[in-house]
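Ticket #4471: structure output looks truncated?

Reporter: J.K.
Steps to reproduce: submitted the chain below (158 residues) through the standard prediction queue, then opened the result file.
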Amino acid sequence: MKRRNAAILILILSVALAGSFIPSKFAFTRSPSLRYRVFCLDRLPDTKGLKRGDYVMFILKDKRVENGKPVNITKEVGCAPGDTLVVQGKDYYCNGNEYLGKAKDYALNGERLDHFVFNGPVPEGKVFVAGHHKDSYDSRYFGFVGVEAITARAYPVF
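Returned output as attached by the reporter:
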């Protein structure tokens, strides 16, 4: 009986340990704004080497998201420091040829959307983030994300 109780205790402790480990190492997204739904996280990110195509998790505090409460968001870096962001009308490009998406005038709920307008090199310490879906709420609307807001680098799992 003691052996069985010890085995059950070890199993419970193992599950609890794994359960505490998963939220800090993995992120799951319900949003259709990205191609991937599961990401492995590096919570001590080296933000100096960020480049187009990298995924980042960052804290966004915006009145349109969660009533302005800070929330962790995962997006792809569409334009990194030193790249050139070009806005032509409502179309966004990185380095003149990498299409990032078209800004919409209205959100799905009918609310009017402001567009981020910038033409030139992305400043040091900033990134332009983008989603893959036309309805993604990303830098087209809230502008650059400062690297100080980045809480993790995210690596797609599936």
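Triage note (M.O.): checked the attachment and the full token line is present. The helical segments are 2-25, 139-142.
Status: closed, working as intended.
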